Structures are given as C-alpha cells and as structure tokens.
What we know:
The chain is an alpha/beta fold. Helices cover about 40% and strands about 15% of the residues. Its cofactor is pyridoxal 5'-phosphate.
Amino acid sequence: MLENDQLAQWDRENFFHPSTPLGQFARGELNNRIVTGGKGVYIEDREGNKLLDAFAGLYCVNIGYGRQEIAEAIAAQAKELAYYHSYVGHGTEANITLAKMILDRAPDHMSKVYFGQSGSDANETNIKLVWYYNNVLGRPEKKKIISRWRGYHGSGLMTGSLTGLETFHNQFDLPLPYVVHTDAPYYFRRDNLGQSEAEFVKQCADNLDALIQKEGPDTIAAFIGEPVLGTGGIVPPPAGYWEAIQAVLNKYDILLIVDEVITGFGRLGSMFGSDHYGLKPDIMTIAKGLTSAYAPLSGSIVADRVWKVLEDGTDKYGAIGHGWTYSAHPIGAAAGVANLKLIDELKLVDNAKDTGAYFVQGLKDAVGDLPIVGDVRGEGIMAAVEFVKDKDSRTFFDPTDKIGYAVVGALLERHKVIGRAMPQGDILGFAPPLCMTKEEADTVIAATKDAIETVIAKL
Length: 459
Ligand code: PLP
C-alpha cells in the first residue's frame, strides 16, 4: 500500500467523487477516508480506525462486510466465465438461476426480471417499459409519471427528475417534462399540526386525485414510490397510506412502480416492502440488497399484466430495443445467488425484524425526550432521528445551522459510528447491515445519545 500522503494527494488531484463539495475536497479542506477492509458491521480505514457502519455503505451492504462465500462465488464465476452478454436469448447459469430465485421471492403476480447495473438505470428501464406499454396499447398520450416530493429514484436525467429532492434538480435543469410531483407521506412535517394521521392520509389521496384530474387521467401512465421514503428522510408511511393511494391509481388505470431498491430483500423485516404494506406493483425496482453491493446489479421485475403487453409489442414490432452491455452481468449474478442464499441461511430477514424493532425502540427510549429531538421513527432495520429547534411548536433549525451534520460528526469522532445526515432537513439516518446484533445496536444507541447531547451542549 502506498504512503498515506501520496494516495491522499492522488485522490485530491484525480478522483471526481460523487456527492462531494468539489472545491473543498480538492483544496484539502475536507477529509478523505481511504477504506481498506470490513467485517460484519465494521469497516476499517488506512489510519487503523475501525468504524461501526450503521448505514451499511449506502443502505446496501445488507449481508455485512467480508462474507467469504460471496467473494468465492464471484471468483469462481470470474475464472469460469467473467462475461457474456444476455442479448437475444443468451444466459449463464448464474443469471438464469438468480432470475428464478428473485421470482420465487417476489409477489405471485410478478412474471420476469430485466437486469441492469444500478437502481438508477433500472428505473430508467421502468419508465421506458411504461411508455412502450402504453404505445403498444394504443394510448400514446398516457406518458406522465407521478412521483413524490422527497422520493429518491436515482440521479440520471429521468430518474433525477423523478427524485423529489432539490439538490438533484437545481443547476441541472431538472425535472424534465413528463414528471409530476405529489405530496410526500411525511406526517411529521404536515402543514397543519392539528391534523390526525387519518386526515393527513386522506389529504394525500385527495391531492393525488386532484392532480390526476388537473393533468388529465389519460395523460398519466404511472406512479412511482418507495414503500418507505429513504433518502428523503427515512419516513415510514402513515397507516392506510398505500391503501388510499392504490385506490386512486386503480380508479384511473395508472401503473404502480414500487421502488424496492432499499427495501428489497429484507430491510423492513419482510422480503419486500410490497409484502410489508400490501402493495400490488406492476413493476418493482431492485438493486442494493440484491447483491448486498458485492457487485453492481439491479433489476426491474415486471408483473404478468405488463409482460403480456411487452410480448404482444415485440410480436408486432420486433425485438425490444432496450439493453445494456452489462445487463445480467454474470459476476453480479453470481454475487446475487450467493447473497440470497446467505440471507436465507442466516435468517437475516427475521433478524432485521427483531433487531430492527429493538433498535428503533431503543433509540426512542434513549433520545426521544432530548430537547432537540422532534421525532424518532423507523421500520424494520431502518431508523431516523429528526431534530427541531422547538419541540412544542415543531420549529425546524435554520439549514445553515447544519445540526444533522453536527450530530453525524460527533457520532463519528467520539464513537467511530457511521450514521448519515440525510440531504434535506436535520435528520440522522440509520440503515445498518441486516446482520447487526442487539449488542451492536446498543452501541449505536448509546453513541447517538452522547452525540446529540454533545451538540446540545454547544448550542
Ligand atoms: N431508488 C432508490 C429507492 C434508492 O435509494 C437509490 C439509491 O440510493 C436508487 C433508486 C438509485 O440507485 P443507484 O444509486 O444504484 O443508481
């Protein structure tokens, strides 16, 4: 390994990092961290720090770091056949097996998997499939997609448009036409504090209905949503939300794309968020937990009713004109097969449920009464603590106070625990590997309490 200084310098001189304040990083005003290894919920860096990663990378290393079984499956695949494409009926044992394993786990009415590389490209695929679907059905005007403010669906041109977060739009001239945003199911941030959860849910559904009416039901093709808002703030929906939304979509023959990139394969303590909330998707997006990020792979799972139209379309117009060189990459697929097997063997979906419930309750008990904590919430093994300046009036801090970042900084510096300052609002997010133990959860809870108290002491 190179000397610290040299690698750190090359990093600043050559590497364009995503989601990074570029000038600050290039000038050396922002630390870099060179990560060297990981095991279970821990990662290690070159300075010898051992950090408890309570965000599983980017909510993706669900199985935990350092699983040799997956590394070996990847190596075996690379030695046998590192690559062949999947166009015009070509496949490998790994990607064919993985497609079957996914469908065995997905809701019964799902039919086929289209593989990509990332959550973003899978959602691009989904929008193209929806447009193709309506063209084949002779409804060329039915093309707009509704997504939610604070939804996150990727950072491509279309998917960045679907994403309902300002930093993904500003200075990029997004959102593109064809994308319409509706309410986030974010009860804690409701405008009217006196509103009950049921009233809020009704308002979300009524506003969606009104938006569809305004745009014209014949112009709306699909609605896309994450079962639990992720990057928008880790916000589980209020009770009855999905039922109310699905009723509106069914009324206007609007397809439902359920973005399970975070929730797929166990994060909510159920195999999919769709099972968890009784959703009936027409298309499901999967990525992250599919391989636990041991190799890049994503998928679009299409339901019977969509598949039928796709078949009719290609009978009429020829082969579907959509493909990536790396669709169904055999190395990603081998990682996926080994990962899904391990999730079953280690009973990680059950652990996400049990340890997740323990973790969320523990956080509530430990920090819920602290003066700047406005909300502690979670579902499965995913949680958030939201900070406010004044609890009674639910007054938020000024964004320039950067309270969320301060807490995340204290957590890291004082306890070597990684949480995430969510991008919009003062929100501390957690999404640890599904294998986290109760003892490790206790460590994160105690560290969080101390980090928040440290920030309070400086206010
Ligand atoms: N959809 C959701 C719900 C996500 O959380 C993400 C990434 O965080 C994406 C899509 C985009 O996935 P990727 O970053 O792999 O393109």
